[in-house]
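#lab-general

N.A. 3:47 PM
ok so I finally got the sequence cleaned up, no stray characters, all 587 residues accounted for. can someone with queue access submit it? mine expired

B.Y. 3:52 PM
send it over

N.A. 3:53 PM
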Amino acid sequence: MKTEIQQLIATAIERMSVAKQLPDNLQINATLERTRNPEHGDFASNLAMVLAKPLQQRPRTIAETIIANLPSSPLLAKVDIAGPGFINFHILPAAYIKLLPLIATQDIAYGCSNLGASQSIQVEFVSANPTGPLHVGHGRGAAYGSTVANLLTAIGYKVHKEYYVNDAGRQMDILATSVWLRYLELCGNEMPFPANGYKGDYVWDIAATLHREQGNKYWHSQDAVCTDLPSDADAGGDKEQFVDALIVRTKHLLGASNYQVIFDLGLKVILDDIRKDLEQFGVQYDTWYSERSLITKDLVNLCIEGLQSSNYLYKQDGATWFRSSAFGDEKDRVLVRENGQITYFASDIAYHIDKLKRGFKQIIDIWGADHHGYVSRVKAALAALGEDPKRLDIQLVQFASLYRGSEKLAMSTRTGEFVTLRALRREVGTEAARFFYVMRSHDQHLDFDLELAKSESKDNPVHYIRYAHARVHNVFLQAKTRDISVDPAPNMDILQQQLLAPSEQALLRTLATYPEIVEHSALHYEPHHLTHYLRGLANEFHIYYDTHKFLVEDTNVRNARLSLVRAVGIVLRNGLNLLGVTAPKRM
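B.Y. 4:20 PM
back already:
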Protein backbone atom coordinates (compact mmCIF):
# COMPACT_ATOMS: atom_id res chain seq x y z
CA MET A 1 0.00 0.00 0.00
CA LYS A 2 2.79 2.40 0.84
CA THR A 3 4.36 1.82 -2.56
CA GLU A 4 1.06 2.53 -4.30
CA ILE A 5 0.61 5.81 -2.44
CA GLN A 6 4.20 6.78 -3.23
CA GLN A 7 3.39 6.22 -6.89
CA LEU A 8 0.31 8.44 -6.59
CA ILE A 9 2.44 11.20 -5.06
CA ALA A 10 5.07 10.76 -7.80
CA THR A 11 2.36 11.21 -10.42
CA ALA A 12 1.15 14.39 -8.68
CA ILE A 13 4.69 15.78 -8.64
CA GLU A 14 5.11 14.94 -12.33
CA ARG A 15 1.87 16.73 -13.18
CA MET A 16 2.92 19.78 -11.18
CA SER A 17 6.27 19.82 -12.99
CA VAL A 18 4.58 19.67 -16.39
CA ALA A 19 2.30 22.53 -15.31
CA LYS A 20 5.39 24.56 -14.27
CA GLN A 21 4.19 24.56 -10.66
CA LEU A 22 7.60 23.25 -9.56
CA PRO A 23 11.12 24.49 -10.39
CA ASP A 24 13.12 22.41 -12.84
CA ASN A 25 15.49 19.77 -11.36
CA LEU A 26 14.10 20.26 -7.84
CA GLN A 27 15.43 17.66 -5.39
CA ILE A 28 12.59 16.53 -3.11
CA ASN A 29 13.30 14.62 0.11
CA ALA A 30 9.85 14.11 1.57
CA THR A 31 8.64 11.30 3.79
CA LEU A 32 5.57 9.08 3.78
CA GLU A 33 4.93 7.39 7.11
CA ARG A 34 2.26 5.32 8.76
CA THR A 35 0.17 7.41 11.15
CA ARG A 36 0.01 6.39 14.80
CA ASN A 37 -3.61 7.46 15.17
CA PRO A 38 -6.09 5.92 12.67
CA GLU A 39 -8.23 9.08 12.98
CA HIS A 40 -5.44 10.88 11.09
CA GLY A 41 -5.65 8.42 8.24
CA ASP A 42 -3.31 5.57 7.41
CA PHE A 43 -0.37 7.46 5.91
CA ALA A 44 0.90 11.02 6.25
CA SER A 45 3.35 12.94 4.04
CA ASN A 46 5.33 16.09 4.82
CA LEU A 47 5.75 16.86 1.10
CA ALA A 48 3.94 20.21 1.27
CA MET A 49 6.17 21.44 4.10
CA VAL A 50 9.30 20.31 2.25
CA LEU A 51 8.19 22.34 -0.80
CA ALA A 52 7.27 25.45 1.22
CA LYS A 53 10.73 27.04 1.09
CA PRO A 54 11.57 26.50 -2.61
CA LEU A 55 8.05 27.51 -3.67
CA GLN A 56 7.77 30.41 -1.20
CA GLN A 57 4.19 29.40 -0.39
CA ARG A 58 2.24 28.32 2.67
CA PRO A 59 2.40 24.53 3.17
CA ARG A 60 -1.39 24.19 3.30
CA THR A 61 -1.70 25.98 -0.04
CA ILE A 62 0.87 23.65 -1.56
CA ALA A 63 -0.92 20.65 -0.01
CA GLU A 64 -4.13 21.68 -1.78
CA THR A 65 -2.27 21.81 -5.09
CA ILE A 66 -0.73 18.38 -4.51
CA ILE A 67 -4.11 16.85 -3.67
CA ALA A 68 -5.66 18.42 -6.76
CA ASN A 69 -2.99 16.70 -8.89
CA LEU A 70 -3.34 13.25 -7.31
CA PRO A 71 -4.82 10.67 -9.70
CA SER A 72 -7.95 8.84 -8.60
CA SER A 73 -7.35 5.54 -6.85
CA PRO A 74 -9.61 2.68 -5.67
CA LEU A 75 -7.26 2.48 -2.69
CA LEU A 76 -8.27 5.77 -1.11
CA ALA A 77 -11.35 6.79 0.83
CA LYS A 78 -10.19 10.40 1.09
CA VAL A 79 -7.14 12.66 1.31
CA ASP A 80 -7.12 15.64 3.66
CA ILE A 81 -4.79 18.21 5.18
CA ALA A 82 -3.86 18.33 8.86
CA GLY A 83 -1.89 20.66 11.08
CA PRO A 84 0.65 22.90 9.36
CA GLY A 85 0.33 21.03 6.09
CA PHE A 86 0.55 17.25 6.50
CA ILE A 87 -1.26 15.35 3.76
CA ASN A 88 -3.20 12.45 5.27
CA PHE A 89 -4.21 9.46 3.16
CA HIS A 90 -7.22 7.41 4.32
CA ILE A 91 -7.33 3.86 2.96
CA LEU A 92 -10.68 2.27 2.12
CA PRO A 93 -11.54 -0.67 4.42
CA ALA A 94 -12.15 -2.73 1.29
CA ALA A 95 -8.50 -2.29 0.34
CA TYR A 96 -7.43 -3.97 3.55
CA ILE A 97 -9.91 -6.79 3.04
CA LYS A 98 -8.31 -7.50 -0.36
CA LEU A 99 -5.09 -8.36 1.47
CA LEU A 100 -6.54 -11.61 2.81
CA PRO A 101 -6.70 -13.49 -0.51
CA LEU A 102 -3.38 -11.89 -1.48
CA ILE A 103 -1.68 -13.16 1.67
CA ALA A 104 -3.22 -16.61 1.22
CA THR A 105 -2.06 -16.76 -2.41
CA GLN A 106 1.45 -15.43 -1.84
CA ASP A 107 1.88 -17.46 1.36
CA ILE A 108 5.63 -17.68 2.11
CA ALA A 109 6.30 -14.92 -0.44
CA TYR A 110 4.11 -12.37 1.35
CA GLY A 111 6.36 -9.57 2.55
CA CYS A 112 9.00 -10.28 -0.08
CA SER A 113 9.78 -7.97 -2.97
CA ASN A 114 12.21 -7.40 -5.82
CA LEU A 115 13.40 -4.06 -4.53
CA GLY A 116 17.02 -5.23 -4.58
CA ALA A 117 16.72 -6.32 -8.22
CA SER A 118 19.20 -9.20 -7.61
CA GLN A 119 22.04 -6.80 -6.88
CA SER A 120 24.88 -8.60 -5.13
CA ILE A 121 25.64 -7.88 -1.49
CA GLN A 122 28.20 -9.61 0.68
CA VAL A 123 27.57 -9.88 4.41
CA GLU A 124 30.56 -10.87 6.53
CA PHE A 125 29.79 -11.60 10.17
CA VAL A 126 31.09 -13.33 13.30
CA SER A 127 34.61 -14.01 11.89
CA ALA A 128 35.83 -14.76 15.42
CA ASN A 129 39.47 -15.76 15.76
CA PRO A 130 39.64 -19.59 15.80
CA THR A 131 41.39 -19.53 19.17
CA GLY A 132 38.48 -20.79 21.27
CA PRO A 133 34.78 -21.70 21.25
CA LEU A 134 32.17 -19.11 20.38
CA HIS A 135 30.81 -17.31 23.42
CA VAL A 136 27.57 -15.43 23.97
CA GLY A 137 29.11 -12.22 22.62
CA HIS A 138 29.75 -13.91 19.28
CA GLY A 139 26.18 -15.18 19.34
CA ARG A 140 24.78 -11.69 19.03
CA GLY A 141 26.81 -11.03 15.88
CA ALA A 142 25.74 -14.41 14.48
CA ALA A 143 22.02 -13.82 15.05
CA TYR A 144 22.21 -10.25 13.80
CA GLY A 145 24.29 -11.01 10.70
CA SER A 146 22.24 -13.97 9.53
CA THR A 147 18.98 -12.08 10.11
CA VAL A 148 20.20 -9.07 8.12
CA ALA A 149 21.16 -11.47 5.33
CA ASN A 150 17.69 -13.06 5.45
CA LEU A 151 15.99 -9.66 5.31
CA LEU A 152 18.07 -8.46 2.36
CA THR A 153 17.34 -11.69 0.52
CA ALA A 154 13.62 -11.20 1.20
CA ILE A 155 13.60 -7.84 -0.58
CA GLY A 156 15.37 -9.15 -3.65
CA TYR A 157 19.12 -8.81 -3.08
CA LYS A 158 21.51 -11.60 -3.98
CA VAL A 159 23.27 -12.12 -0.67
CA HIS A 160 26.60 -13.86 -0.14
CA LYS A 161 27.39 -14.77 3.47
CA GLU A 162 31.04 -15.05 4.45
CA TYR A 163 33.16 -15.93 7.48
CA TYR A 164 36.70 -14.53 7.48
CA VAL A 165 38.98 -17.09 9.13
CA ASN A 166 41.88 -15.40 10.93
CA ASP A 167 44.13 -18.44 10.49
CA ALA A 168 47.40 -16.50 10.52
CA GLY A 169 49.10 -14.10 12.87
CA ARG A 170 50.09 -13.74 16.49
CA GLN A 171 46.89 -14.95 18.18
CA MET A 172 47.08 -18.27 16.37
CA ASP A 173 50.73 -18.57 17.39
CA ILE A 174 49.70 -18.00 21.02
CA LEU A 175 47.10 -20.74 20.67
CA ALA A 176 49.57 -23.21 19.14
CA THR A 177 52.11 -22.46 21.87
CA SER A 178 49.44 -22.85 24.56
CA VAL A 179 48.49 -26.27 23.15
CA TRP A 180 52.11 -27.39 23.08
CA LEU A 181 52.72 -26.35 26.69
CA ARG A 182 49.67 -28.31 27.84
CA TYR A 183 50.93 -31.23 25.75
CA LEU A 184 54.28 -31.06 27.56
CA GLU A 185 52.45 -31.17 30.88
CA LEU A 186 50.72 -34.36 29.71
CA CYS A 187 54.20 -35.68 28.88
CA GLY A 188 55.17 -35.16 32.54
CA ASN A 189 56.76 -31.69 32.46
CA GLU A 190 55.83 -29.07 35.04
CA MET A 191 55.59 -26.11 32.72
CA PRO A 192 55.07 -22.46 33.69
CA PHE A 193 52.07 -21.28 31.73
CA PRO A 194 52.19 -17.78 30.19
CA ALA A 195 49.88 -15.13 31.64
CA ASN A 196 48.87 -14.28 28.09
CA GLY A 197 48.23 -17.87 26.99
CA TYR A 198 44.87 -19.48 26.31
CA LYS A 199 43.75 -21.24 29.48
CA GLY A 200 40.39 -22.79 28.62
CA ASP A 201 39.66 -26.50 29.02
CA TYR A 202 39.43 -26.78 25.23
CA VAL A 203 43.22 -26.22 25.07
CA TRP A 204 43.70 -29.26 27.33
CA ASP A 205 41.39 -31.26 25.06
CA ILE A 206 43.42 -30.39 21.94
CA ALA A 207 46.66 -31.19 23.77
CA ALA A 208 45.24 -34.52 24.90
CA THR A 209 44.36 -35.40 21.31
CA LEU A 210 47.90 -34.55 20.25
CA HIS A 211 49.40 -36.68 23.04
CA ARG A 212 47.05 -39.59 22.38
CA GLU A 213 47.89 -39.63 18.66
CA GLN A 214 51.62 -38.76 18.80
CA GLY A 215 52.83 -39.87 22.23
CA ASN A 216 55.99 -38.02 23.26
CA LYS A 217 57.07 -37.21 19.71
CA TYR A 218 57.06 -33.44 20.38
CA TRP A 219 58.55 -33.58 23.89
CA HIS A 220 61.30 -31.19 24.98
CA SER A 221 62.64 -30.60 28.46
CA GLN A 222 61.46 -27.74 30.64
CA ASP A 223 64.97 -26.29 30.63
CA ALA A 224 65.09 -26.29 26.83
CA VAL A 225 61.79 -24.45 26.71
CA CYS A 226 62.27 -21.94 29.53
CA THR A 227 65.96 -21.12 29.84
CA ASP A 228 66.85 -17.46 29.23
CA LEU A 229 63.28 -16.34 28.51
CA PRO A 230 62.30 -12.85 29.73
CA SER A 231 60.18 -12.63 32.88
CA ASP A 232 56.43 -13.09 32.66
CA ALA A 233 53.92 -10.76 34.33
CA ASP A 234 53.82 -12.71 37.62
CA ALA A 235 57.59 -12.14 37.98
CA GLY A 236 57.40 -8.43 37.23
CA GLY A 237 58.00 -8.72 33.50
CA ASP A 238 56.02 -7.87 30.40
CA LYS A 239 53.52 -10.58 29.50
CA GLU A 240 53.54 -9.63 25.81
CA GLN A 241 57.33 -9.84 25.53
CA PHE A 242 57.29 -13.14 27.40
CA VAL A 243 54.71 -14.83 25.19
CA ASP A 244 56.38 -13.53 22.01
CA ALA A 245 59.73 -14.95 23.17
CA LEU A 246 58.00 -18.22 24.03
CA ILE A 247 56.52 -18.43 20.54
CA VAL A 248 59.97 -17.95 19.01
CA ARG A 249 61.37 -20.69 21.29
CA THR A 250 58.51 -23.04 20.44
CA LYS A 251 59.06 -22.65 16.71
CA HIS A 252 62.83 -23.13 17.12
CA LEU A 253 62.57 -26.31 19.17
CA LEU A 254 59.85 -27.95 17.12
CA GLY A 255 61.00 -26.91 13.70
CA ALA A 256 58.73 -25.63 10.97
CA SER A 257 57.00 -28.91 10.05
CA ASN A 258 56.30 -30.10 13.61
CA TYR A 259 55.15 -26.65 14.68
CA GLN A 260 52.76 -26.58 11.71
CA VAL A 261 51.24 -29.90 12.80
CA ILE A 262 50.34 -28.44 16.21
CA PHE A 263 49.21 -25.15 14.69
CA ASP A 264 46.95 -26.91 12.17
CA LEU A 265 45.51 -29.26 14.80
CA GLY A 266 44.47 -26.37 17.03
CA LEU A 267 43.01 -24.51 14.05
CA LYS A 268 41.09 -27.53 12.74
CA VAL A 269 39.60 -28.56 16.07
CA ILE A 270 38.41 -25.08 16.96
CA LEU A 271 37.23 -24.16 13.47
CA ASP A 272 35.28 -27.41 13.18
CA ASP A 273 33.71 -26.62 16.54
CA ILE A 274 32.78 -23.11 15.38
CA ARG A 275 31.25 -24.45 12.15
CA LYS A 276 29.16 -26.98 14.05
CA ASP A 277 28.10 -24.41 16.63
CA LEU A 278 26.93 -21.95 14.00
CA GLU A 279 25.11 -24.59 11.96
CA GLN A 280 23.21 -25.67 15.05
CA PHE A 281 22.41 -22.00 15.63
CA GLY A 282 20.83 -21.83 12.18
CA VAL A 283 23.71 -19.95 10.53
CA GLN A 284 25.04 -21.10 7.17
CA TYR A 285 27.84 -19.49 5.14
CA ASP A 286 28.53 -19.48 1.44
CA THR A 287 32.28 -19.06 1.97
CA TRP A 288 34.80 -19.60 4.75
CA TYR A 289 37.59 -17.30 3.59
CA SER A 290 41.11 -18.04 4.81
CA GLU A 291 43.39 -15.17 5.83
CA ARG A 292 46.37 -17.33 4.85
CA SER A 293 45.07 -17.43 1.27
CA LEU A 294 45.68 -13.68 1.05
CA ILE A 295 49.36 -14.35 1.63
CA THR A 296 49.64 -17.39 -0.63
CA LYS A 297 47.96 -15.44 -3.46
CA ASP A 298 50.29 -12.50 -2.73
CA LEU A 299 47.30 -10.15 -2.33
CA VAL A 300 48.77 -8.39 0.71
CA ASN A 301 51.98 -7.49 -1.09
CA LEU A 302 50.02 -6.29 -4.12
CA CYS A 303 48.04 -3.89 -1.92
CA ILE A 304 51.20 -2.65 -0.21
CA GLU A 305 52.80 -2.08 -3.62
CA GLY A 306 49.69 -0.23 -4.76
CA LEU A 307 49.83 2.10 -1.77
CA GLN A 308 53.56 2.58 -2.29
CA SER A 309 53.13 3.55 -5.93
CA SER A 310 50.51 6.11 -4.89
CA ASN A 311 52.95 7.61 -2.35
CA TYR A 312 50.79 6.78 0.65
CA LEU A 313 53.51 4.81 2.48
CA TYR A 314 56.58 5.93 4.39
CA LYS A 315 59.26 4.42 6.63
CA GLN A 316 59.69 5.34 10.28
CA ASP A 317 61.59 3.51 13.03
CA GLY A 318 62.08 0.55 10.71
CA ALA A 319 58.35 0.09 10.13
CA THR A 320 56.23 0.82 7.05
CA TRP A 321 53.36 3.24 7.68
CA PHE A 322 50.20 4.08 5.72
CA ARG A 323 49.18 7.76 5.60
CA SER A 324 45.60 7.04 6.65
CA SER A 325 45.40 10.45 8.31
CA ALA A 326 45.27 11.93 4.79
CA PHE A 327 41.83 10.33 4.46
CA GLY A 328 40.34 11.38 7.78
CA ASP A 329 41.79 8.76 10.13
CA GLU A 330 42.99 10.11 13.47
CA LYS A 331 46.55 8.92 12.84
CA ASP A 332 48.70 6.93 10.42
CA ARG A 333 48.82 3.13 10.69
CA VAL A 334 51.58 0.51 10.55
CA LEU A 335 51.38 -2.03 7.73
CA VAL A 336 54.73 -3.78 8.18
CA ARG A 337 56.44 -3.98 11.57
CA GLU A 338 60.14 -3.36 12.04
CA ASN A 339 60.70 -7.15 12.19
CA GLY A 340 59.18 -7.53 8.71
CA GLN A 341 55.86 -9.00 9.86
CA ILE A 342 52.72 -7.65 8.25
CA THR A 343 50.01 -6.36 10.56
CA TYR A 344 46.40 -7.48 10.77
CA PHE A 345 45.52 -4.18 9.15
CA ALA A 346 47.56 -5.02 6.05
CA SER A 347 45.67 -8.29 5.69
CA ASP A 348 42.36 -6.49 6.24
CA ILE A 349 43.13 -4.11 3.38
CA ALA A 350 43.88 -6.97 1.02
CA TYR A 351 40.75 -8.83 2.13
CA HIS A 352 38.47 -5.88 1.48
CA ILE A 353 40.04 -5.12 -1.88
CA ASP A 354 39.50 -8.76 -2.82
CA LYS A 355 35.84 -8.48 -1.77
CA LEU A 356 35.32 -5.55 -4.12
CA LYS A 357 37.21 -7.24 -6.93
CA ARG A 358 34.86 -10.22 -6.62
CA GLY A 359 32.11 -7.95 -7.91
CA PHE A 360 29.87 -7.30 -4.91
CA LYS A 361 27.95 -4.07 -5.37
CA GLN A 362 27.95 -3.53 -1.60
CA ILE A 363 29.84 -5.20 1.21
CA ILE A 364 28.60 -5.21 4.78
CA ASP A 365 30.97 -5.94 7.65
CA ILE A 366 29.46 -6.77 11.02
CA TRP A 367 32.03 -6.22 13.75
CA GLY A 368 32.10 -6.10 17.50
CA ALA A 369 31.95 -2.66 19.08
CA ASP A 370 35.60 -2.95 20.14
CA HIS A 371 36.57 -2.63 16.44
CA HIS A 372 35.19 0.89 16.05
CA GLY A 373 38.70 2.28 15.54
CA TYR A 374 39.15 0.16 12.42
CA VAL A 375 36.29 1.74 10.48
CA SER A 376 38.04 4.91 9.36
CA ARG A 377 41.36 3.23 8.57
CA VAL A 378 39.85 0.51 6.38
CA LYS A 379 37.79 3.06 4.46
CA ALA A 380 40.92 5.21 4.13
CA ALA A 381 42.84 2.32 2.58
CA LEU A 382 40.07 1.64 0.07
CA ALA A 383 40.05 5.29 -0.98
CA ALA A 384 43.85 5.33 -1.29
CA LEU A 385 43.68 2.32 -3.61
CA GLY A 386 41.11 3.98 -5.84
CA GLU A 387 37.98 2.22 -4.55
CA ASP A 388 34.79 3.88 -3.38
CA PRO A 389 34.66 3.55 0.43
CA LYS A 390 30.88 4.02 0.29
CA ARG A 391 30.67 0.47 -1.05
CA LEU A 392 31.73 -0.70 2.41
CA ASP A 393 29.10 -0.48 5.14
CA ILE A 394 30.29 -1.38 8.64
CA GLN A 395 27.79 -2.18 11.38
CA LEU A 396 29.11 -2.34 14.94
CA VAL A 397 27.35 -4.73 17.29
CA GLN A 398 27.47 -3.72 20.92
CA PHE A 399 28.37 -6.14 23.68
CA ALA A 400 25.96 -8.62 25.24
CA SER A 401 26.02 -9.30 28.97
CA LEU A 402 24.52 -12.46 30.34
CA TYR A 403 22.56 -12.43 33.58
CA ARG A 404 21.21 -15.21 35.74
CA GLY A 405 18.90 -13.35 38.08
CA SER A 406 20.92 -10.42 39.36
CA GLU A 407 24.26 -12.18 38.75
CA LYS A 408 26.29 -11.07 35.76
CA LEU A 409 28.26 -13.95 34.28
CA ALA A 410 31.95 -13.55 33.45
CA MET A 411 33.23 -13.79 29.89
CA SER A 412 36.87 -13.94 28.78
CA THR A 413 38.17 -16.26 26.07
CA ARG A 414 41.80 -15.87 27.17
CA THR A 415 41.20 -16.90 30.79
CA GLY A 416 38.64 -19.53 29.90
CA GLU A 417 35.98 -17.89 32.06
CA PHE A 418 33.08 -17.51 29.65
CA VAL A 419 29.70 -18.93 28.72
CA THR A 420 29.79 -20.60 25.33
CA LEU A 421 27.13 -20.05 22.71
CA ARG A 422 26.53 -23.80 22.81
CA ALA A 423 25.82 -23.73 26.53
CA LEU A 424 23.43 -20.81 26.03
CA ARG A 425 21.55 -22.67 23.31
CA ARG A 426 21.24 -25.76 25.47
CA GLU A 427 19.81 -23.72 28.32
CA VAL A 428 17.35 -21.41 26.55
CA GLY A 429 17.03 -22.94 23.07
CA THR A 430 18.01 -21.62 19.66
CA GLU A 431 14.70 -19.83 19.12
CA ALA A 432 14.88 -17.78 22.31
CA ALA A 433 18.59 -17.06 21.88
CA ARG A 434 18.24 -15.79 18.30
CA PHE A 435 15.18 -13.69 19.07
CA PHE A 436 16.61 -12.11 22.22
CA TYR A 437 19.84 -11.23 20.42
CA VAL A 438 18.03 -9.11 17.81
CA MET A 439 15.09 -7.69 19.72
CA ARG A 440 17.19 -4.70 20.74
CA SER A 441 18.99 -2.39 18.30
CA HIS A 442 22.45 -3.77 17.53
CA ASP A 443 24.09 -0.44 18.39
CA GLN A 444 22.80 -0.66 21.97
CA HIS A 445 24.20 -2.77 24.78
CA LEU A 446 22.20 -5.95 25.42
CA ASP A 447 21.47 -7.43 28.83
CA PHE A 448 20.44 -11.03 28.13
CA ASP A 449 18.09 -12.28 30.84
CA LEU A 450 18.37 -16.08 30.99
CA GLU A 451 15.37 -16.56 33.24
CA LEU A 452 13.11 -14.47 31.02
CA ALA A 453 14.30 -16.29 27.88
CA LYS A 454 13.35 -19.63 29.45
CA SER A 455 9.99 -18.55 30.83
CA GLU A 456 6.70 -19.57 29.24
CA SER A 457 4.90 -16.32 29.90
CA LYS A 458 3.51 -13.29 28.13
CA ASP A 459 6.60 -11.39 29.25
CA ASN A 460 8.81 -13.61 27.10
CA PRO A 461 8.26 -12.13 23.61
CA VAL A 462 9.48 -15.11 21.61
CA HIS A 463 7.27 -17.51 23.56
CA TYR A 464 4.33 -15.11 23.21
CA ILE A 465 4.73 -14.85 19.43
CA ARG A 466 5.31 -18.55 18.84
CA TYR A 467 2.32 -19.36 21.05
CA ALA A 468 0.17 -17.11 18.85
CA HIS A 469 1.23 -19.14 15.81
CA ALA A 470 0.45 -22.40 17.63
CA ARG A 471 -3.00 -21.03 18.46
CA VAL A 472 -3.61 -20.31 14.78
CA HIS A 473 -2.71 -23.86 13.87
CA ASN A 474 -4.90 -25.19 16.69
CA VAL A 475 -7.94 -23.39 15.25
CA PHE A 476 -7.60 -25.25 11.95
CA LEU A 477 -6.76 -28.50 13.73
CA GLN A 478 -10.01 -28.20 15.70
CA ALA A 479 -11.90 -27.51 12.48
CA LYS A 480 -10.46 -30.67 10.96
CA THR A 481 -11.21 -32.68 14.09
CA ARG A 482 -14.82 -31.50 14.04
CA ASP A 483 -15.09 -32.12 10.28
CA ILE A 484 -15.81 -28.45 9.61
CA SER A 485 -15.09 -27.40 6.04
CA VAL A 486 -13.04 -24.25 5.55
CA ASP A 487 -13.50 -22.14 2.43
CA PRO A 488 -9.97 -21.30 1.20
CA ALA A 489 -11.19 -18.21 -0.69
CA PRO A 490 -14.35 -16.63 0.73
CA ASN A 491 -16.30 -14.12 -1.33
CA MET A 492 -14.98 -10.56 -0.99
CA ASP A 493 -18.42 -9.19 -0.21
CA ILE A 494 -18.75 -11.64 2.66
CA LEU A 495 -15.37 -10.64 4.04
CA GLN A 496 -16.28 -6.95 3.93
CA GLN A 497 -19.61 -7.56 5.63
CA GLN A 498 -18.26 -9.74 8.42
CA LEU A 499 -14.86 -8.34 9.45
CA LEU A 500 -16.09 -5.14 11.02
CA ALA A 501 -15.08 -5.49 14.68
CA PRO A 502 -12.39 -3.06 15.89
CA SER A 503 -10.05 -5.98 16.69
CA GLU A 504 -10.51 -7.30 13.14
CA GLN A 505 -9.89 -3.91 11.57
CA ALA A 506 -6.78 -3.50 13.71
CA LEU A 507 -5.44 -6.89 12.62
CA LEU A 508 -6.05 -6.05 8.96
CA ARG A 509 -4.12 -2.79 9.26
CA THR A 510 -1.25 -4.53 11.04
CA LEU A 511 -1.06 -7.28 8.42
CA ALA A 512 -0.87 -4.60 5.73
CA THR A 513 2.22 -3.03 7.30
CA TYR A 514 4.27 -6.25 7.26
CA PRO A 515 5.95 -5.71 3.84
CA GLU A 516 6.88 -2.17 4.93
CA ILE A 517 8.43 -3.48 8.16
CA VAL A 518 10.46 -6.07 6.24
CA GLU A 519 11.70 -3.46 3.78
CA HIS A 520 12.62 -0.94 6.48
CA SER A 521 14.33 -3.57 8.63
CA ALA A 522 16.35 -4.77 5.64
CA LEU A 523 17.42 -1.42 4.21
CA HIS A 524 18.44 -0.03 7.61
CA TYR A 525 19.93 -3.30 8.92
CA GLU A 526 17.59 -3.09 11.90
CA PRO A 527 15.87 -6.45 12.55
CA HIS A 528 14.64 -5.27 15.95
CA HIS A 529 11.80 -3.47 14.15
CA LEU A 530 10.56 -6.84 12.94
CA THR A 531 10.64 -8.31 16.46
CA HIS A 532 8.58 -5.39 17.78
CA TYR A 533 6.13 -5.78 14.90
CA LEU A 534 5.64 -9.50 15.56
CA ARG A 535 5.13 -8.85 19.26
CA GLY A 536 2.41 -6.32 18.41
CA LEU A 537 0.73 -8.63 15.90
CA ALA A 538 0.77 -11.50 18.39
CA ASN A 539 -0.77 -9.29 21.05
CA GLU A 540 -3.59 -8.21 18.72
CA PHE A 541 -4.23 -11.82 17.76
CA HIS A 542 -4.30 -13.08 21.35
CA ILE A 543 -6.91 -10.42 22.15
CA TYR A 544 -8.93 -11.46 19.12
CA TYR A 545 -8.60 -15.14 20.02
CA ASP A 546 -9.76 -14.56 23.58
CA THR A 547 -12.79 -12.47 22.61
CA HIS A 548 -14.12 -14.18 19.49
CA LYS A 549 -15.24 -17.65 18.48
CA PHE A 550 -14.11 -18.86 15.08
CA LEU A 551 -15.81 -22.21 14.50
CA VAL A 552 -19.31 -20.80 14.70
CA GLU A 553 -22.45 -22.11 12.98
CA ASP A 554 -22.81 -19.15 10.60
CA THR A 555 -20.79 -20.18 7.54
CA ASN A 556 -20.12 -16.64 6.36
CA VAL A 557 -18.88 -15.45 9.76
CA ARG A 558 -16.77 -18.57 10.18
CA ASN A 559 -15.10 -18.38 6.80
CA ALA A 560 -14.39 -14.66 7.14
CA ARG A 561 -12.79 -15.05 10.55
CA LEU A 562 -10.81 -18.09 9.50
CA SER A 563 -9.45 -16.15 6.51
CA LEU A 564 -8.19 -13.50 8.89
CA VAL A 565 -6.75 -16.09 11.28
CA ARG A 566 -4.98 -17.85 8.40
CA ALA A 567 -3.40 -14.58 7.27
CA VAL A 568 -2.15 -13.88 10.80
CA GLY A 569 -0.55 -17.32 10.92
CA ILE A 570 1.19 -16.79 7.57
CA VAL A 571 2.67 -13.45 8.63
CA LEU A 572 3.76 -14.74 12.05
CA ARG A 573 5.50 -17.70 10.40
CA ASN A 574 7.14 -15.59 7.68
CA GLY A 575 8.42 -13.03 10.18
CA LEU A 576 9.76 -15.64 12.59
CA ASN A 577 11.51 -17.46 9.75
CA LEU A 578 13.31 -14.26 8.74
CA LEU A 579 14.61 -14.08 12.31
CA GLY A 580 15.79 -17.69 12.10
CA VAL A 581 13.10 -18.79 14.56
CA THR A 582 10.75 -21.71 13.98
CA ALA A 583 6.98 -21.26 14.06
CA PRO A 584 5.58 -24.23 16.01
CA LYS A 585 2.24 -25.89 15.35
CA ARG A 586 1.91 -26.96 18.96
CA MET A 587 3.23 -25.68 22.27
